[in-house]
Amino acid sequence: MSSPLLDIWEAASASPYQPTVAKSSQFAVGFVLLLLAFILTGVFGLNRSLVNLPLLGVPASLAFGFGAVYMICAVGVYV
Asked: Less Cβ around it within 10 Å: N or C end of the chain?
């Protein structure tokens, strides 16, 4: 008598999870994203307009969000 959940668990053990960004390169990825966010935020602050919002503001906020998460994981602070 085997349950479907147990079958899925056994099948998943053959293929372990591999992250997109390796642990050894998380610091570099986080640093680059935070630097990019800082630059984009500075350019957006100098040229504020409705046109620059989707071109500079949105990518800056996404780069800061993902960069902060990668940097937190890279230095060993787990939230």
From this structure: N
